[in-house]
Amino acid sequence: xxxxxxxxxxxxxxxxxxxxxxxxxxxxxxxxxxxxxxxxxxxxxxxxxxxxxxxxxxxxxxxxxxxxxxxxxxxxxx
Length: 78
Prior knowledge:
Blueprint: H1 29-44, H2 53-77
């Protein structure tokens, strides 16, 4: 059963904020780029917009930081 409230981070009703897929590192470059495109759509293609331009920037900055961290960890593991 899903909660009528759910995640306050992405408004998903199938999980809570501490298990939000938006906070999980992307598995590959394709997923990373898809997330960025999704944040742009949330800002510019939804009516009303789901996020403000500032929130979009923050989401993309976070995603890029997580992707860089994942790449660094992958390189360290080699």
